[in-house]
């Protein structure tokens, strides 16, 4: 006998998947946007702070480097390691003020009026102050002997720091004479013959003081055995256009070479004003109002330095514009300080 069993049917109803309402989606979207905006503002603030710090650091570095260059040159103006102001030259006159004029200091209120500076391209001056500074530096080269009748000086040690055509200064405690090397033999013997085998050439082979021609039957005087060589320098410092469309601190003039050239020293320096103090005066005056350049004993200069000089577009202030600051310093000429 078969027993039938009845089974209850279990009905399974699938529950519809619940979703977000439109209001919930809008609220989530707004919250997400707020979070993104907050993160974005923090990112932008940090980026601006970083760029401002870079700009400020660049401006300070440019000012520090410029002041170091200028202060060193101003302090040394008129100095020479010979310890004497009795300086003469046997060089032939050329009309080049950077070679013929060795007045320790001279200035201009507008560099565009200075003759000889580049007239175009990198190094072309802008309307800002300019200052010329001349001095001499010790080369560390002492002489071994100097043959009076001959146009030659033998060094104590050989060197490769000197070449034919260089302009040097031979000096002792009593005198100093500028001359041009017409030959350099065996890296130890300087020849300074008369003539123009080198430009501008020497008026005479004698390095006497003052500079005379050798009298008939006479000979050149010699310098003392303790004499040594110095390097005369003569440079104009000014603000000029650079090759990146900005401005820089430039130096124009000569060291050992007889040819003057412009060299970019510090990028990002946009302006310079220079004022001068004369001995006995009570104020700093413009170059046009200096009575006697031989009496100038101190210089006050202000530099305008702008960011973006080394990394254009990477360094800016909080307004996303280049940061610009003015720095001022006063420097005394060591050789003209009144010690009384």
TrEMBL record:
Keyword Hydrolase: no
Signal peptide range: none
Keywords noted in UniProt: Membrane, Transmembrane, Transmembrane helix
GO biological process: type IV pilus assembly
Residue ranges crossing the lipid bilayer per the database entry: 21-44
Keyword presence, Ribonucleoprotein: no
Parts forming coiled coils: none
UniProt name for this protein: Type IV pilus assembly protein PilW
The organism's taxonomic lineage, starting at the top: Bacteria, Pseudomonadati, Pseudomonadota, Gammaproteobacteria, Pseudomonadales
């Amino acid at each position: 006998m078969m027993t039938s069993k009845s089974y209850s049917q279990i009905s399974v109803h699938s529950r519809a998947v619940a979703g977000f309402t439109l209001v919930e989606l809008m609220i989530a979207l707004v919250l997400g946007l707020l979070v993104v905006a907050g993160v974005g503002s923090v990112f932008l603030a940090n980026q601006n702070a970083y760029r401002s710090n870079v700009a400020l650091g660049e401006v300070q570095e440019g000012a520090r480097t410029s002041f170091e260059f200028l202060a060193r040159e101003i302090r040394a103006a008129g100095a020479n390691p010979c310890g004497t102001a009795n300086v003469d030259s046997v060089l032939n006159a050329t009309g080049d003020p950077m070679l013929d004029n060795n007045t320790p200091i001279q200035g201009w209120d507008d560099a565009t009026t200075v003759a000889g500076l580049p007239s175009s391209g990198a190094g072309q001056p802008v309307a800002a102050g300019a200052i010329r500074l001349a001095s001499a530096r010790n080369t560390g080269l002492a002489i071994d002997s100097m043959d009076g009748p001959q146009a030659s000086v033998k060094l104590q040690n050989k060197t490769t720091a000197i070449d034919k055509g260089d302009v040097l200064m031979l000096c002792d405690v009593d005198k100093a004479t500028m001359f041009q090397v017409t030959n350099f033999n065996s890296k130890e013997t300087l020849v300074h013959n008369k003539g123009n085998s080198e430009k501008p050439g020497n008026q005479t082979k004698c390095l006497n003081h003052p500079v005379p021609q050798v009298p008939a039957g006479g000979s050149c005087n010699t310098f003392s055995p303790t004499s040594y060589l110095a390097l005369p320098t003569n440079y104009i410092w000014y603000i000029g256009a650079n090759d990146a469309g900005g401005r820089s601190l430039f130096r124009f003039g000569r060291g050992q070479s007889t040819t003057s050239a412009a060299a970019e020293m510090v990028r990002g320096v946009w302006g310079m004003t220079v004022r001068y103090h004369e001995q006995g005066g009570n104020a700093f005056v413009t170059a046009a109002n200096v009575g006697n350049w031989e009496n100038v004993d101190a210089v006050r200069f202000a530099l305008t330095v702008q960011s973006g000089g080394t990394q254009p577009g990477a360094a800016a202030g909080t307004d996303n514009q280049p940061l610009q600051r003015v720095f001022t310093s006063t420097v005394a000429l060591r050789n003209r300080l009144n010690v009384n």
